[in-house]
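Review box. Two proteins, two foldings.
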Amino acid sequence: MAERLISSELRELSVYNTILSAIAQGHNKLNDLFLTTGFSRAKISVYMKNLSHFDIVEKVVSFETGGWDNAKKGVYQIKDTYVNFWFKFVFPYLSDLYLMTPSAFYDAHIAKELDDYLSRYFRNVCMEYLQLLNQIGKVPFPIHKMGTWIGKTGNVDIVAQSSDRQNIVGLCNWKEPELTMQMCEDMYETMQKAKINSEHFYLFSAKSFEADLVEHAKRDTRFELIDMNEL
């Protein structure tokens, strides 16, 4: 179990379990953890430092742009995929784990939130794809750095920037049946808050694209549509 992995490296398992469970449920800022766990900020900071040391947790900082006022200043996430899954879907329902069949447990506690959970990892795959394109010279300009702009009311999934601050913006759709024009409009609105300009858009969809968007991309060379067959 994930708890065994953590206990092999760290003491006071119950405290770490509480903190990790809170992060897995979306309480990913220091103040959120303080309010959720009841531990002091100083205590949480010490435990987060230990978790970071063992590569269990990482602090993710928003990609640096001119829109700093609209960005979150940094959020914590569980880096280890096994630990993250355990504390998201299993640890809060341990009593049910031993009472329910595997299929019943999956239906009750995993299925409804699995797509949201996997969206983060799909974004990572899309970033890796861009990195590969960069290595073989198949992007509009050499990419110098890449990340996610994390906003207070929305994110820009991928910002890939050159050394002279040209940007490629990526939008990643794992959950919805189609990546739509409206999703692109929402992305433009978030880009304004982030003060990000771009003439190159890479749109990733795990399923498909809205027909109007496909036609638009045929006319507008700024858009690249990438589906699972290419990833």
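Next protein.
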Amino acid sequence: MISPQHDMLQSAIRTLEIITDIHILDLDAVDSNEYPQIIVSSGQNIDAERAKNEQRSTYTLYVDYFDDVDNDHGLMMDTLFSIREYLKYLRLSNYNCQSYAFNQSSETIDNSTSKSLRHVTITFDYHITEKLII
């Protein structure tokens, strides 16, 4: 069985590919010079409380959105809204997943590349448990 973290990442990437026409990367992908682009990554905090036959865990999904400052800012804002709304309701293949928090960082200008880029990070916190088969 795949891990909850991997299932969450794959589900998020599939969802983003459906709702956007933007180049999606995970941390294993080679960086691209195509903009806009979205980088998806994750983290985990294991909760000490466990029910019988169940491990409760909190997982965090990070969505970094980069776009050229010369591109349409309104389109970026609309896309970020769609991402926030759709990723609240991830459907995982092997686990139950419930979103309980998200946060969107303020837009910053990233000058670390040859282009000036707008950068926004959205974090989603999920409670993920194994599906019980009775």
